[in-house]
Amino acid sequence: MAEEVLIESSGKISVHLTKSLLAVAFLSSFGSSMLYGYNLAVVNSPAEYIKEFYNSTLIRRNGEGVDEQTLTLMYSVTVSIFAIGGLLGSFMVGMLVSRFGRKGTLVCSTVLVFIGGALMGSSRMCGSPEMIIVGRFITGIHSGISLSVVPMYLGEIAPKNLRGFLGLVPSIFICIGVFIAQILGLHELMGKEEYWPLFLSLVVVPTFIQLMLLPWFPESPRYLLIEKRNIHATITALKWYRRRSNIQAEVEEMQEESRSLSSVQTLSVLELLRDRSVRWQVLTVMVVNAGMQLSGIDAIWFYTNDIFENAGIPRSQIQYTTVGTGAIEVIAGLVGCFTIERLGRRPLMIGGFSFMGFCCCGITLSLILQASIPFMHYISVACVVGIIAGFCIGPAGVPFLMTGELFKQSHRPAAFIVGGSLNWLSNFTVGFIFPFLQMSAGAYCYLVFFAVCAGVSAYVYFVIPETKNKTFVEISQMFSSKDNAMEIHALGVTAHGSKLNGYGALEEDREK
After folding, report:
1. Distance between CA atoms of 204 and 116, rounded to whole angstroms?
2. Separation between Cα atoms, residue 119 and residue 296, nearest integer Å
């Protein structure tokens, strides 16, 4: 293996990517993040079969079926209940990671996938639509936990010069999960009526692989040192992830953060929201996580076939067009992953959201004009692909990365609860409301997503500083400097003779 430490021209230590880091990033994302993407798209292909199953079951139970609107409502509940489970899972993150650790939480939560997969897989045999809904709810809980814990885990084991790259690995696996669901959903594979229960329950396969291998990897060194005060385990974990690197500098940086937090316990969500020293970080987490889902990407993933059908694509060609969009997702995710350490977080976020907003306007225009201009349905497809590509380049993964970067150890679990809960609440809102919004507003429904994308882009441009190659303490001080500057300006005083304390707040310099 090549030497793991480089000295940059600035004198800063740069750590190479090791096989251990790459393996744990892939493994944790494969059994968790990929399932999130898979569950987003898996209900798209068998939608009509699931509706028929619901209707036939109700006929058998009650002697009569239901109308199309009621079936749409039942299917919307099936789609969006996954987000309700995710919301519940996100509330549990703080308690779980404090008790079991980052890796331990990922391992323990796998039991949820096996329960949910078993329920969905046996639903038709038992003649129970409720088992599908409960199964998606339980797998949603797992995704709600893992969607926060995986970025937290990878952010804490990664050296600062690789935190962006490793932080976007989960977003690539989300795209891969969507792509796999789209491929397996082809009629030639598992897109037939008899296969849809098995199609829904395949989530257990990657989770089983993760359960067999992930326990062999070490826990997060930052968790071991700052929360467990176990210096021996910390050094052992760092040696595993860094191999021949000189880990002394990293240990000292973690000890410095630990000393600054020596009198502070892990904060609850309420305490985090009350902490004025991190209010800009909290607001940022809320904006980027809510904006990530309200940008319209979930509407695209949940209802891709319906969107393409409304755009005039022949029904026989829709499934292949959908698979093509999945390939674009993976490519765009790889582009974001391999450019984030060069470009930074801000350009990927601003560029991604701006391009998504532009494509939302393009879909609206193409749907309005497609009746009079036949080739406009191709513009609709191109804009759908553009929304997906723009999302996967930056907004798909950077919000989770930012949530981990903007806070120190004492604040991080509560921050992931806030970001995760808003993420899933927004996910549910879009998944449940979009079919009805589409029926009522028609082509103009995409202008709502344009407004969200434009607003988030503007917020990132004017408020969020670049966090590339910064330590967690340095990032906290960057935000607190912004906050203190605003307070000082409002009070009409200067910051002369003041300094930042360990939490990023301003304190009086008592040196005389």
Report:
1. 9
2. 30
Low-confidence ranges of the chain (pLDDT < 50): 1-14, 486-512
Reference 182, options 332, 309, 29, 302; nearest CA is 302
Q: How far lies 369's CA from each of 312, 313, 378, 461, in Å?
A: 12, 15, 12, 33
Token code pair at residue 458:
């503007």
| 205: Cβ contacts below 8 Å, ≥ 6 apart | none
**Burial (CB count within 10 angstroms: exposed 0-12, middle 13-18, buried 19+), residue 276:** exposed
- The answer to whether the CB of 277 falls within 8 A of the CB of 482 is no
Q: Give me the helices (H) in 245-397, please.
A: 248-260, 269-274, 279-294, 297-302, 304-310, 315-343, 345-369, 376-393
500 DSSP β-pair partners: 506
Token digits of residue 110 = 């796998």
Alpha helix ranges (H) inside 394-466: 398-405, 412-441, 446-463
Cα angle, residue 304 at apex, residues 86 and 172 outer, rounded to 5°: 55
In the chain the first and final C-alpha atoms are separated, in Å, by 54
Per-residue pLDDT of 88-107, as tens digits, reads 998 898 889 888 989 999 99
CA-nearest of 7, 33, 113, 9 to 337 is: 33
pTM, full prediction: 0.78
The DSSP symbol for 115 reads H
Q: Are 284 and 422 in contact (CB under 8 A)?
A: no
